[in-house]
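hiii so my PI (J.) wants the whole complex modelled not just the main chain, which honestly fair. so below is everything: three entries, each one labled with what it is. i double checked the lines twice but i was tired so who knows lol
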Amino acid sequence: MATAAVRLNRRTLGLRRALAPIAEARGFPRGMLWTGTGMTLLFVLLAIFAPVLSPYGFDQYQANGHRFDQLARPGHGHILGTTVQSTDVLSRIVWGAQTELEVVGLALAFGLVIGVPLGLVSGYFGGPFDRVAVLFMDAMFAFPPLLLAIVIAFLLGNSVSSGVLVAALAITIVYIPQYFRVVRNHVISVREEPYVEAARALGAKPFTILRRYVFFNVVQNVPVIATLNAADAVLTLTALGFLGYGVQPSQGAEWGYDVSRAVSDAASGIWWTGLFPGLAIVMLVTGLTLLGEGLNETINPVLRRRSIRRVDFAAPSMDAGAELLDS
Amino acid sequence: MSEPVLAVRNLRLWYGTPRGSVRAVDGVSLEIGAGEVLGLVGESGCGKSTLGRGILGLLPEGARADGEVLYKGRNLVAMSPRELRRMRGPDLGLIFQEPMTRLDPLMRIEDHFRETLEQHEPKLTDHDIRRRSLDTLGRMGIPPTRYRQYPHEFSGGMRQRIMIALALVLHPSLLVADEPTTSLDVIVEAQILRILADLKESFGTALLLITHNLGIIAEACDRVAVMYAGQIVEEGDARDVFAEPKHPYTRELLRSTISLETQELHSIPGAPPNLITPPTGCHFHPRCPDVMRVCAARDPIETAPEPGRRVLCWLHGPDSEIPEGGEAPLERGRIAVAEEA
Amino acid sequence: MTDYAEPLVSLHGLKTYYSIRGSFLDRLVGRTGAAVRAVDDVSLDLRKGEVLGLVGESGSGKTTLGRTLLGLVPATEGSIVFEGRDITGLREHDLRELRRRMQIVFQDPHASLNPAMTIGQSIGHPLQIHGITNREEAQARVAEVMERVGLAPVEQYVDKYPSDLSGGQKQRAVIARAIILNPVLLVADEPVSMLDMSVRAKILELMLALKHDFDLTYLYITHDLATAKFFCDRIAIMYLGRIVEIGPSEAIYEDPKHPYTQALLRAIPEPDPRRTIPRDLPRGEVPDASRPPLGCSFHPRCPKAFEVCGWEARDLKELLERRWAGLDEAGFEAEREAVGPVGELDVPATHVRLAAHGSAHGADLGSLLERARAADPAEPFWTGVRRIAAENGALEVDWHEPVEPRLLPAGEVEVECHLYDESALSEAARRRESAIPE
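here's the output for the full assembly
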């Protein structure tokens, strides 16, 4: 019988096959993919190891009994300077990374868990449920996303205590229609494929078909959409923070909030309170976008460019197997 | 014989891939005279489509060509892309397999013709364009009342006729038809073939008909070239080749074709080879029922067993090139049932 | 011991219509859209152990018939009796149990297998679906059936994905999946048409061997009469949703009765060096299934059509279009000006009033028709014309009323063609005699 190794091999076969195009990527897409991954990974590490990496707490304005200088220039003690509230800019960047990724991660998770199954069911079964769902989702699409997020954050802000959760929910609701739509459209085309009809002919129940025949074949685009949505979600979150919604200052550091505080500083020539949070936002969003686009170019079979090697018309050797004859 | 319209000499069309070069066309030579119909037959993966497009210079990125493609004496391989593009249409025509996907669904038939003619013969007046288009369409059996309809309003067979008309309206001297009837029903297929076969009378066009269907070749072509693994293994007058095939692959292919006369099923064991690393020596030797020892060791040399016929097979010599003991049959392991295609 | 007396499957008056959604305006006004009569009143019996071929071109309804039989497509009318039990209109839930007994092999091997499942998983999935969940038993069954279809050594193929296999290998896997539950009926929808010539024979051989080993009954759907001849015991020729000829294989091939069958046989390209392309094939193509011709659907293309076959205004439109394709531009323009928009003739009617346009009179139109007739007097269309009357501004044309064709015995086969229908022939003769002289 198959050994444990062979069985493990078998289980991971599908995953390895799915990831194979990434290993084969070349040129520009490869560059995008790895740059994006690197940049994103940097922030992920910052987020995870924030307690270790950050010199101070996110709202710490004193140490050893001394209050930090207000608006200190970048230099000794505070590499990136301090803000008007005497908090360390670097610490707030690092802790802010945690906030961003926490919120965006939650929002992604919620969005996928709700949007993808809805899209699957709606696309496969069609009928009145589908019509209503599409109507609803299109209506949500029609709202300017930021506006929608603000409204929801505002509404939830009173009932939900955790600012992180509020922000996550607001972003979730804005992005569910994306996952829904992408998955639903793909399901509709896959639904007509012969192998799905074959599954019906075998007598498979609809949910079995959805699970084993449809799901894996429509889900390839989801990582791309998810990553690009994450990039967008970061912007939405920071916009919420800029306006004072979502994560409250007492609950955690948030880059958007920092930028809003730094607006008044700029007039006085104080650049470090706004530049660094701003740069952090740009880098995280860029990293996620590069990752998403890189994935798209790599995994998407339409865009994927076959890697081409040069052709060498070396003269074919006539007697390649001449030795065979003399044996 | 007057100078051929198309003369291909030792053409090689290779694609580069990470695993090595795919030898889609590996040293092919052929000729087509004016008004002649040459059928290029082979199974999937033999390189016939690549050859058809390669002749017209329509190769995908990463493919390289080596050798000569002489169209009326001019080498197309050496031409610049711009010059080649100018020749496509008025000199070189191509008909594809799926007519629906090749016609622009947003343009009326009239617009298709106008675009083609305006681009290649700018001196024509609107009236001339209309007259010529209707004339060509009429020969294809498309009534003038449908000139202003859209492609989706036509059936598959009619769309193929429109494609042929589009290709012919410029009076090209060479037409390459790549599986023109494969997606059509059998009666429509026969209608289209009749049109293609009559081209020589109406237009004097040389036609390269690429297909996997031997029946079509037998009925519609003057000469036939049989392709296997990137090479032409046999070529000659269609009637002669079918009556007396000289290459084992041709013979086996004919035997495995199921027709109304078939009494018993026959197939060729094994599968077409990998074009990146084809078998050494003769590409067909692993599947050949008449294989000899020399076949696995040395590339076969083309011979002409009778005038007008070419064969790439050690069975037909040249004997002087076969080393001592090479003619003994080769021992081979049995090919597993499913290793065939 | 196979019992040939009781049919395994019995179809009676089966109809499968698809409704086409009309335009928005139509729906607003309440006009229902046209229906595509994919299967239009088909009755046949499939006996246990036989191979029945369903032959037709695209639009013939053969594929839809296969799917309706299996319950993959709902029947609009009629009945399907399988193993003595009426399964028409059964809900999916009840059909599921039956799926073990009737299976289907599809046409496109490249698309019939789930790209996300390995071959082993795909072939074994029916076992899972129907409750044979003991893993070891399932694995053994899968291995056994893979060996049987030639996908051996099993270890080499069981973990491969469909994209790793060739067309022939994939089709073997599809067949394995179809037989693993030991069905009694197998519907094969063009199982070899997408495979190379040298591979077809192998798959057909496999299917024949399986038939003997497992006592299978096949419904073999194809457009290729050559493989059908080899493979099938009985053949049914379909055209636009109806069976036009059905009978034992030899009878069909040796003495085809229906003009369509004759045309199909003539059109098959044969790799025979002595053959040339047949010149005498029916013109045109299979018509639009949502607007079938009146009477016999084949009549517009039939070289032997006559009075009762269903001539109508649309045939006149086609006649004029054919004529104009061959005229020079001046001639065409003149005639077209007189006739006006030819789309007005695009109605299924046996009477039409053709208005003369431009400076033409009814008489001009009349002479146009006469010229057309003189150009090709043997054209069957003219047998259907009952009366042509010219008025000042129009031309009235009447055709004989159609007689609906019926499937009737003729020798060893059954044919749906007026040429073999005594009552239709005598009706035609009667009409000829009482025809109004022009």
